Amino acid sequence: MRVNFTVNGRPQEADDVWEGESLLYVLRERLGLPGSKNACEQGECGSCTVRLDGVPVCACLVAAGQVEGREVVTVEGLADYAKQRAEHGGCASGACGTSVDEAQRWQARGQDSQTGEGTELSPIQQAFIDAGAVQCGFCTPGLLVAADEMLERNPNPSDADIREALSGNLCRCTGYEKIMDAVRLAAARQGEAV
Amino acid sequence: MDFLRPASWEEALAAKAEHPTAVPIAGGTDVMVEINFDHRRPEYLLDLNRVGDLYEWEVGEESVRLGASVPYTQIMEHLRTELPGLALASHTVASPQIRNRGGVGGNLGTASPAGDAHPALLAAGAEVEVESVRGSRRIPIDEFYTGVKRNALAPDELIRAVHINKADGPQQYSKVGTRNAMVIAVCAFGLALHPGTRTVRTGIGSAAPTPIRAKAAEEFLNAALEEGGFWDNGKIITPSVAKQFAELCSGACNPIDDVRGTASYRRHAVGVMARRTLTWTWESYRGTAARTEGVA
């Protein structure tokens, strides 16, 4: 079957989708967006977290056909999504977003991969780099999407709020303390900017 | 596999009548796991995401009509006053991502003995509104669970809503697992005080082939509370009463040994949760009663 939906602000069309296929498979294998990670395939680990009509969900548990006509934001579109939100409170014009070509090429690497300089990053991505919250990196995309959504909803989270919001994301490097630091840092910077 | 996408409830019923083997999918948090792991290859998937009514709820005089697909997140955020037991249970479901998708309709459809909503529904008192092209009926929650992962639905029926009695007293919910997030209950317990009728109701999860009520324990406690005039005098529950209630709750269990826990552990833990939730709810009832008296 064919599935039409919006990915990172741009309309996309996926063809030859098997009816039992997950949104995660469509993103990774049909649209070439491997940012959302495929680990447990049962909603346990959160590494495939994306936003579906604004709400964080495990892409592995959404049937592809269920996203017809709906809006998905993946980690590849997070920088633009955060920028639009900061500048215009979201994308009202419909002219923003990240194309699939751009998204496929998207890397958190500028002139200096250690600091993210020279690359446009969302504040949460920059905070993860600055706080040393990225180890093997496999859980990072899911955590970024989940943390970004929490900060949008709750700009001044307590530690308990952060733990709760990220409780569906596992880090097998066990780098949770640095991840907490990163989210606190992003929240603090967000507060300063206002 | 065919993917059926009804745009309305009527279309969904028609599709289910035409294809009774179709597997309904809403949040997908159970169904997609089975498909991803190749445990299930349904001939038809019946997507209910387009049926907007299923995401709505109405607060009535006596009960809340909760649409089958209302996600747990919404229950936690909007129905804490009316349905405190279910709101607490909802908060123990998996993770934010799962709670954003899953709802009570799916929990009932799967009818796992470990489903988090069941003890809360049993304790509060509820009816499941199911419908087919043949008509609509309401199944009392006590008659809904018929076996391990089996329920009272006919092959052509779909779950439309759950009518849950609004809380008329304190409710509590307790769940045992290895961590707070992302656990299937080792066992769970729901308790609701109903001061209006001077009764208590219980719900036990994951400690029998189906979710069950501890009816002998309820009867014992109802009689003990009545006899001691507890509803009126608001006294502390006698430890011996709490102890016997806990033992009867343990006795209601018919658990198995499995990867999550042993049968004897489950029996024990249900007793502990029964005693604790009784203490919590009763303390809360006494507090409310005292305040009401003070104002009057």
Could you explain the architecture of this structure?
Chain A has 194 residues and is of the alpha+beta class. Chain A has 7 helices and 5 strands; from the N terminus they run E-E-H-E-E-E-H-H-H-H-H-H. In chain A, strands 2-1-5-3-4 form a 5-stranded mixed sheet, with helices on both faces. In chain A, helix 4 packs across helix 7. The mean pLDDT of chain A is 92. Chain B contains 11 helices and 13 strands. Chain B has 2 domains: 55-165, Uridine Diphospho-n-acetylenolpyruvylglucosamine Reductase, domain 3, CATH 3.30.465.10; 171-295, CO dehydrogenase flavoprotein, C-terminal domain (Enolase-like, domain 1), CATH 3.30.390.50. Chain B is 39% helix and 22% strand. Chain A binds chain B through residues 1, 18-20, 22, 41-44, 46, 49, 55-58, 60-63, 65-66, 68, 146, 164-165, 167-169, and chain B through 1-3, 5, 25, 27-29, 31-33, 35-37, 41-42, 45, 47, 49, 94-98, 100-101, 180-182.
Which segments of chain A are poorly predicted (pLDDT under 50) over 5 or more consecutive residues? none
Most strands sheet of chain A: 5 strands, mixed
CATH topological fold name of the domain at 110-193 in chain A: DNA polymerase, domain 1
What share of residues of chain B is helical?
25-40%
Instruction: Name the strands of the widest sheet of chain A in spatial order.
Output: 2-1-5-3-4
Assembly classification? heterodimer
Tally of domains of chain B = 2
Strand content of chain B: 15-25%
Strand tally of chain A is 5
- Strand count of chain B: 13
How would the global form of chain B be characterised?
globular
Secondary-structure blueprint:
The complex is a heterodimer of chains A (about 190) and B (about 300).
Chain A (H helix, E strand, L loop, with lengths): L2 E5 L2 E5 L8 H8 L18 E4 L2 E4 L12 E3 L4 H11 L11 H6 L17 H9 L8 H14 L5 H7 L10 H18 L1
Parallel strand pairs in A: 1-5
Antiparallel strand pairs in A: 1-2, 3-4, 3-5
Chain B lengths: L1 E3 L4 H10 L4 E3 L5 H6 L7 E4 L9 E3 L3 E5 L4 H7 L5 H8 L4 H4 L4 H7 L6 H8 L1 E7 L2 E6 L4 E3 L2 E2 L6 E8 L5 E6 L10 E8 L4 E7 L9 H13 L2 H4 L5 H14 L10 H33 L1
Parallel strand pairs in B: 1-3, 2-3
Antiparallel strand pairs in B: 4-5, 5-10, 6-7, 6-10, 8-9, 11-12, 12-13
